[in-house]
Task: inverse folding
């Protein structure tokens, strides 16, 4: 990159935006190949969901899966603050292989457009289109993806995601409550892993950790061109104009937070507000000691990650 170019926004250590409009990506753009993972026995493949727009996903299933025993389906939205990573990211690929093996599930990892090239709501639009594509397979004569038609129990469908992916799952659970798609596909439960919610006014550890508060502020302002800033309802579920959590379209919800995560207190607040909201489902919260945000993506083989995967597997298979 030309060192003489002026930087308009520096989102260290992930990317730089220059005043001429060019973007330099410094991390989070690595790509892995789908296929059989010999360590976990999980098979994956990439598929284009919507050819007109190029929306795609990476599908996972146990290689040992048999068509006569249908498996739960998890629709997964990856993290990355809406501006880095993809469904083909090696860190996500390795992590999701382990989750699929532990839980014995079929998983659809959605690849959505990211900012700043594609600011919000692009990621939500792509992710919703992906959900529509999946839902089409629940009908006897709908959809053509063999892995979904042959291996999935559409009576056991889950939404899951980490960080901004958990944010997406939250908004879709609200949107599904009173729309036609919510009648086509019933979401049994949602797993929100280190959910990315935020707000202008600091809470909890954010009050004293001003450096990380400012960092996350900067991330959100990069991806969402909104006059409301960090109090936009997309990122702050408790600001004016946000719908009540009472309307979540699922029976169960799991919130996972990490002790050292700057987003921890927002996840705790979400759980507390949900329990008090009048929602008729069952909420659980799991806190991982001594870990930071999305640690399981960076180190999926550590003991805490294994414990978390077991907890997720239990949550899915007992629903």
Result:
């Amino acid at each position: 990159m030309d060192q003489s170019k002026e930087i308009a926004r520096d989102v260290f250590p992930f990317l730089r935006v220059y005043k001429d409009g060019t973007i330099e990506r410094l991390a989070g753009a690595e790509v892995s190949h789908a296929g059989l993972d010999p360590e976990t026995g999980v098979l994956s493949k990439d598929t284009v969901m919507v050819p007109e727009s190029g929306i795609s996903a990476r599908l996972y299933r146990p290689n040992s899966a048999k068509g006569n025993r249908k498996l739960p389906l998890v629709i997964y939205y990856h993290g990355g603050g809406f501006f880095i990573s993809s469904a083909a990211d090696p860190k996500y690929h390795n992590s999701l292989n382990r989750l699929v093996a532990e839980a014995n599930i079929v998983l659809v990892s959605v690849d959505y457009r990211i900012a700043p090239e594609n600011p919000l709501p692009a990621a939500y639009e792509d992710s919703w289109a992906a959900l529509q594509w999946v839902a089409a397979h629940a009908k006897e004569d709908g959809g053509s993806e063999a892995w979904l038609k042959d291996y999935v129990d559409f009576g056991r469908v889950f939404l899951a995601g980490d960080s901004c992916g958990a944010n997406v799952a939250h908004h879709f659970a609200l949107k599904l409550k009173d729309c036609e798609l919510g009648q086509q596909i019933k979401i049994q439960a949602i797993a929100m892993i280190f959910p990315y919610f935020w707000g202008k006014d600091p809470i909890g550890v954010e009050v004293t950790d001003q450096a990380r508060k400012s960092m996350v502020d900067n991330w959100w302002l990069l991806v969402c061109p909104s006059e409301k800033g960090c109090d936009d309802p997309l990122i702050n579920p408790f600001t004016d104009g946000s719908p009540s959590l009472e309307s979540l379209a699922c029976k169960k919800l799991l919130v996972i937070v990490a002790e050292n995560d700057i987003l921890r207190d927002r996840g705790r607040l979400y759980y507390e507000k949900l329990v008090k909201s009048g929602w008729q489902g069952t909420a659980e919260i799991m806190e991982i000691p001594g870990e930071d945000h999305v640690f399981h993506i960076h180190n999926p083989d550590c003991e805490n990650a294994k414990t978390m995967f077991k907890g997720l597997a239990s949550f899915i298979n007992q629903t």
User: Anything to note?
Assistant: The chain has a mean pLDDT of 96. The chain is about 30% helix and 25% strand. The first strand starts at residue 7 and ends at 11.
